[in-house]
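Recap from last week: sequence in, structure out.
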Amino acid sequence: MVVYNAYDQIAELIADLNPAKVMALKANKELQMRFEDLVSKSKESSLDNLRPVAGVPTSHRA
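Predicted structure tokens:
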């Protein structure tokens, strides 16, 4: 029995798309802003106290 999680399903969906469609995929404005914020913070080495984004899964490390 093979168990797929949501990420596996999304990866499979993208892998099956036409390459031109994959290249045309874009994040929504909120997610793009979040990404830019994380890049900026990672350059500053201050990825503590991140604000969550609705609908975006987060992982918590101990």
